[in-house]
Specification:
Pfam families: NTP_transferase (PF00483). The protein is α/β, with parallel strands linked by helices and 242 residues long. Helices cover 26% and strands 28% of the residues. The longest helix is centred in the C-terminal third of the chain and has 14 residues.
Length: 242
């Protein structure tokens, strides 16, 4: 099984921590966010991890070398030339993955106690093209899923912008995306988008005809560490746990 850590972002929301380093190398309770993500995926037994880089890419490469890739088969997808967003980043990384194996995607700024084995089991048994980890929490943007847990649409609650993937969106449940998702390798042959593009927009396009489902995560701990206040809050919780 493959995994991909999205680590190429500019980390603008996390300033001043990212003034001289990438978001991936910001520390949380003594460990960088990247190390925490790698260790979680390593404990799962993934066969290969691909990490995309752009902002302070050299520092991430040096960090991996210094730590001997944490004993994992790690490949770097270089986006120094152009930041490709989530969809473009996944597409560019295609040739670095073990062929014909699923890909577990994990945002580097996510801290979660989710049991990823449960996600893998549901994904495999459902024959879904994509399984997205969703939570019932407050957010400014929601993805909508019907009674079959099928993706039906997206809405930005601040602007009112709506993207409908299926006609039953208005009867569907709004859930917040957790930054963790698993994709069947068949997805790559369905990507027609070029350059930089959002993976959510790709999923919404494919949801019209493909099985794109929610995995509802009710685990105790989940943090988006993209802002200083969230990082500080998580720091205290993690120190108590560890």
């Amino acid at each position: 099984m493959n995994a991909m850590i999205f680590a190429a972002g500019l980390g603008s929301r996390l300033k001043p921590y990212t003034n001289n380093k990438p978001k991936a190398l910001v520390a949380l309770a003594g460990k960088t966010l990247l190390q925490r993500a790698i260790e979680k995926l390593k404990s799962l037994g993934v066969d290969r991890i691909v990490i995309n880089v752009h902002h302070f890419a050299d520092l991430i490469e040096d960090f991996l070398k210094e730590n001997h890739n944490f004993g994992v088969d790690i490949r770097v997808s270089d986006e120094r030339g152009e930041l490709l967003e989530t969809g473009g980043g996944l597409k560019k990384a295609r040739e670095l993955f073990i062929p014909n194996a699923p890909v577990l995607i994990y945002n580097v700024d996510i801290l979660s106690s989710i049991d990823l084995n449960e996600l893998i089991q549901q994904h495999e048994s459902s024959n879904a093209l994509v399984s997205m980890v969703m939570r019932n929490r407050e957010s400014s943007r929601y993805l909508y899923f019907n009674q079959d847990k099928q993706l039906t649409g997206w809405k930005n609650c601040k602007t009112g912008e709506t993207k409908v993937a299926r006609p039953d969106m208005e009867k569907s449940e709004p859930l917040a995306f957790s930054g963790i998702h698993m994709v069947n390798p068949k997805l790559f042959d369905l990507i027609v988008e070029e350059g930089k593009f959002s993976i959510i927009d790709l999923y919404l396009r494919l949801a019209k005809t493909e099985k794109m489902i929610a995995f509802e995560d009710q685990s105790e701990l989940w943090f988006d560490l993209g802002k200083p206040a969230q990082l500080l809050k998580a720091e205290g919780i993690v120190k108590n746990l560890e």
